[in-house]
Design a protein that fits this description.
Length: 236
Amino acid sequence: MSEKLRLVRGLVAFLASTTGRDKACRTVQYGGRYLSALLRLYSKTFGPALELAEKVDKISSQMGMTRKVLRIGRPIGIALNLAQKLNDKTQPCGSKMFRVLSDLCLTLYFLLDHVLWLQRIGVLKGSLRQQKLTDWWSELAWFGEIVCSLCAILLELQDERRLASQAAGSDAKQSTARPICSQSRLSSLRLDLLRYLLDAPVCLFFMDAVPISSGTAGLLGFVSSLIGAYQSWPTV
């Protein structure tokens, strides 16, 4: 199979899943925010830049609303995974606790996001102030998910390093498969760590808690989205 055909099939399989469509919309959403900031920066020297920036803003905003629709029902899946995590006896207690807290925060984020979506389309009545308050609490829940996930990842990285050291010092016959599995796991955890570190200031930006520009938040979110898309990209 040629590389071009493999890429096309991978893209089709990626967009066929709800997660893939959400990742694609997220990439366009944050990429649009960054592009809009760049266009506004050059609006004085390039006449049509401001008009283009306004159009890009509309696309970015619609991608955000589309993602809210794609997330309908996500708390159910998280609840099912949460039950499995609680029954998992192989995972260390520390990282399992933070993973469970992360899922709880993510569930709360999605529930508040559903409320916010219903408010914005007019199904639930609410003033602009109430919508902003709902949005702020949803971002706080997202930030809680980020912090708990970072704590879990750091604990798991420490555990993986310990296991890798034990495997390296043990008998070769006993450690043939373990280092390969450990390296794959370490790579995945490092990507997760980078993705959450990029998302943290973006979340704080939406909460008006950090003095960064909209363009900077867009760039960080765009890179984070690319990492998430790479991690979700199917093997074809």
